[in-house]
Each structure stands twice: as structure tokens, then as C-alpha cells.
Amino acid sequence: MTATGPVLEARGLAKRYRRGVWALGGIDLELPAGGITALVGPNAAGKSTLIKTWVGFEKPTRGSAAVMGIDPWRDRSKALANLGYVPQSPALYDGLSVEDHLDLAVQLRPGFDRAYARDRLAQLDIPATAGARSLSGGQQAQVSLALALGTRAPILLLDEPLASLDPLARREFLHVLADAVRVDGATTLLSSHIVTDVEQSCDRLIVLGVGHVLIHDTVANALAGHAISTSERTDAVAAFAAPDSSRIWLVRGTGDRPATLDEVVLGYLASSRSKTAAA
Amino acid sequence: MSGALSWARLAYRQQSWEVFLLVAAAAGVGGGMLWVSSQIESLRALRDACLADTPQLCDVIVGRAYEPIQTAQFLLQLSELAPFAVGIVLGAPLVAREIDGRTAPLAWALSGSRTRWLIGRVLFVVAIAALCLGILAWTSEIVAALLDPERDLGRDFNFADTRGPILVARGFGALALAVLVGAVVGRLLPGLLAAILVIAAVFIGFGFLDGAILKAEARVVRIDPQTGTGVLGDHWLESGLQLTDGTALTWDEVARRGIEAEYADDGGDGCWYESQADFTAGRPVGCEVAWVVAGDRYFDVTVRRGVMLGGLGMLALAGTATVVERRRPE
């Protein structure tokens, strides 16, 4: 891998669980260094599975995954040395304080930057002596993020960290994340099923639908390359319902008005759903 | 805070109730053994003084000794079960709770080596188990020695399964197995139940293996026809009949060969005769014998059992490391 090469890769990556369900259906993906990428998709689209494959938690059924060119399943420790990870639901040790978590991270991760993580938490007024059990959901997510940031890893993988947070906590979390990424320059992949949450913070967008990549581009390109038509178009990506229940069409190129990021995502998800139904 | 303290704190906070319960139970049973030992000692001193002075009036004192002796035997039985309880209660939740409680993804993503994480998690728990069982190992030796003061328990299989360092070794084996089962199952309560079943099965198997090894090195001795026993302190494995050509048969083998009891006449000397004439002529079919391991081999046998249990524990921990390296964290 060169300095400008992808930091995260998937080549024909497919994952089937024991019960026979395909979570990923052969994904090809390259994520360049830098910025925040939103990994968006509905529930069961395979977002968590994709992230867990890069963390080395899931073994690919077919294809391969790589972190900085390293196969995370075969050489997990080397791959993890490049990763900071925030799990889906922030699960901290109930009986431990925030400071205990930082101590533990120092034991587990050589080079863990305790002072940096502690500073991040202090800025949010999360006391180091507080027990994990006494923290709000938002604070627990912030501690999880601080633990990931403290690794000073060049890549951060965040698996739906916003899912259980209230709107204010979500905004605060994203603010801290964006600030940290701006300072550290870490490549960040943030999965979410709520587009509006990530719209302001992310530079790139990956839309995943039922195990396949539907769109992968910069947010600017995705917005510039699509528009909304209020009348039916044969070249439309897909049709879907607008908030006022009228029918609108997501089209490539120009239309009646610019598309929002939410509409781009909805259009591709609707397209994916209709293709799946037709199949 | 040093690294060891970090792990100790995590282990204690994760299993504080179990640790508290087991340390309290070990202290209670151990303390009970010391107390009952002092009771037996003082009653024995009283009895000796009484017997020397007014032997006809000592029945009450002798009678009073039964209760602490029975208590001591009960406590020794508890100490025999303690390694399994300690192993299951401390071992099964160790990894299972991390997976069940979803803390494993956090820890495993932070740690490059899950094996190193496992070692950190296991060490404190092993230390607590060793402390609890060490207390029982020490106090059980004291109380067992007082129950039969005339015997040298260093060369005697009396109470062999209920006393001494073998309790610690057995606890380590049980704990390591429970950690392995908990890691495989990945759920707290099912992990506990599965650990009970697996440990029961493995230790029954271990008993068969140990018995087979002992049988292979046992010697055949005549059973004393008056007492029906062998030499005190020997480990009695099983009994049978030794034929006049020297062949020793277990009772099952005796039955298979058709040497049935109703045709045999025990002449009162521990031998079987087919008829009165054979008895009178001193022509037995065979004499009752036992397979025993001599009491002076107690130390060797205990060390061997300890090594086997330690090996079993290390094997189980190696298995746990393999499971933890390969399994999903949730």
C-alpha cells in the first residue's frame, strides 16, 4: 500500500451467517485516507458486519478485507494496531470508573494516550471518577469514543454509536468526533441509519443496501450529481414518497430541484428494494 | 496504578459478589475447622486426664467428643466439594460475562492479543481461588490429623480426597474447565449450567483414569479375615479372590468364571472352599484379597494427581485461548 492508497479495502467481500443469511453479498470497496465517511443503510444492510470484518471480529465467507493492506482475520494484532473502534452499543464495564477504563486501556493497548483521552473527557465535563453505571447514554458513548481516540490509531471505525442517543447527545458526539478527526487527521468510518445525523460531519458517503454497495462517493459529488424530479422520468434512479406523500423521483444530473443527501440515500435504497423485489 | 492492580480491580469489580461469597465461605469453613480442631483437642486432653484418674466416670466426656468429630467430618466433606464450587462460580462467568455483557468488543478491539487479555483476566481469579482453597487445604490437614492422631497423614491415604494441596490443584482444574465452557457458551447462566455438567463429566472421567493408573501399580494383599480390612493408611481400590495358582480375580471376574458364592464355603480364614472335605484338607479355591496402594506412596500419588490436574487446567486454558482468539465477541 502506498501513502495515497486505500486504508480500508474490501474485495468481493461476502459474509454468510450460520443461519444461512447473507449479510454481505460480495462487496468491492476502497476507502482513501482522511476525512469522515458515512456508512449508511437500513437495518440488516450489513453495516455492522462490514465494520466487524475490518476489526477482525468476523471471518469473511468469501473475498477479503484489508486494513492498511493487512488482513485483519489473519493478522489481527497488526490490523488492530491501526484501528480505534467504537462498538454499536457503548458497553462499558459496569463496576469500573471512567479512570479505571483508561487504566485498562493502557494495559490492553501499548501506546494508549491516557492524557489525550482524559483531556477529551474533561472538555465534556465527564468526571474521571464517575462510575460507568452512573453515566448517561451520551456520556457512555463519549467514553467509548475517548477510548478509541486514545489509541491514536490512524483509522477509526464507529459502528452506529449514535443509535441510542438523544438528538442533543448525537450532535455533541459528532462535534467531538469532527473536532478530533480535524486535529488528528484519522480516517473515520461512521455507520448510521440516520442520514441527517451524519450529513454535516461527513465528507464521503457509502450507502449499503442488503449487502451491496449502492453508492460510494464524496458527499459533494453525490449532491451535485443528483436532483429531484416531481414528474416521472424513465432515467430515474428510483421513485419514493416525499414527506407530503407526493411521489418524487431521484434522477442523475439535473431535475426540478437539487436533491438533499437524505433524498439521495432514500432514492438508492428504494432502487435497491425494487431490484430485490423484482429478483 | 500498576498493571496488575488494573487487572485485579477489573476482576474484582466484575465478580465482586462471587469473590466476597467464596472468600467468606472459605474463611467460614476454614475457621470452622480450626474451631472444631480446638474442641477435639481440648476434649481429648480432658478425656486422657479423666481416663488416667477416674476411668469409670469418663463416658460423658467421651460422648461429648462425638459432636465435634461429626462436625469435623462434615467440614471435610465440604472441603472435598469446595474446589468444584470455587471453580464453577469464579470460572464460568469470567469470559461468558464479557460476551454476555458486550464488554468483549471493547476489550478485544483495544487489545492486540486476546490471549494477553485472557491471561490478565484469569490471573487474579486464579489467585483468589488459590487463596480460598489454600485456606481449606491447610485447615483440612489440621483437622484430619486430629481425627486420627496416631496416624502419619504424610504417608496415609486417610481423608486423601478431602485435605491438603490436592484441593488447590483440583480447584485449578475445575476453574480452567469452567472458564473454557463459559467462553464457548458465551452466556452467563447457560455457561454456569454447562460448566457444572462438563466438570462433573470430566472429573468422573479423571476418576476412572486415576483409578486405572492406581490399579496398574497396586499390589494384591490378603484381607484380614478378622477385621475385613487391609493395612491402615493403604488406598483400597477393590477386592476379589486370589486363586491358588496366584491369579487375582475381581468379584466381577469371579462371577464370570462361575465361581459362585453358594458353592463356596467361607471357612472363616478369608478363603473359599468347595466342600467341607476341601476345608479340612486345607484346599481352598482361593482367598479374599484386595488391590491396595501402600500408604507410604501417598505423597507420590498426590503429586502425580496434582500434576495431572494442573496439566488438565493448563490444557483447558490453552483451549480457552484458542476459543477466545477465534470466536465472535458477542
Describe the structure.
The complex is a heterodimer of chains A (about 280) and B (about 325). Chain A is of the alpha/beta class and about 280 residues long. Chain A has 2 domains: about 150 residues, 3-Layer(aba) Sandwich (Rossmann fold), CATH 3.40.50.300; about 55 residues, no CATH class. Helices cover about 35% and strands about 25% of the residues of chain A. Chain A is built from 9 helices and 13 strands. The radius of gyration of chain A is 20 Å and the shape is globular. With about 325 residues, chain B is an alpha+beta fold. At the A-B interface, helix 2, strand 5 and helix 3 of A face helix 1, helix 5 and helix 6 of B.
Placed side by side, the strands forming the largest sheet of chain A appear as 5-6-7-3-8-9
* Percent of residues in beta strands of chain A: 25-35%
For the record, give the distance between the C-alpha atoms at the N and C termini of chain B, rounded to a whole number: 30 Å
Largest interface: A-B, 33 and 26 residues
The DSSP helix count of chain B reads 11
Largest sheet of chain B: 6 strands, antiparallel
Strand content of chain B: 5-15%
Helix content of chain B: 55-70%
Classify the secondary structure makeup of chain B into a structural class. alpha+beta
Largest sheet of chain A: 6 strands, mixed
The CATH superfamily of the largest domain in chain A is: P-loop containing nucleotide triphosphate hydrolases
Count of separate structural domains of chain B: 2
**CATH A-level architecture of the largest domain in chain A:** 3-Layer(aba) Sandwich
What multimeric state do the chains show? heterodimer
Tally of separate domains of chain A: 2
- The dominant shape of chain B is flat
Q: Which descriptor suits the 3D outline of chain A?
A: globular
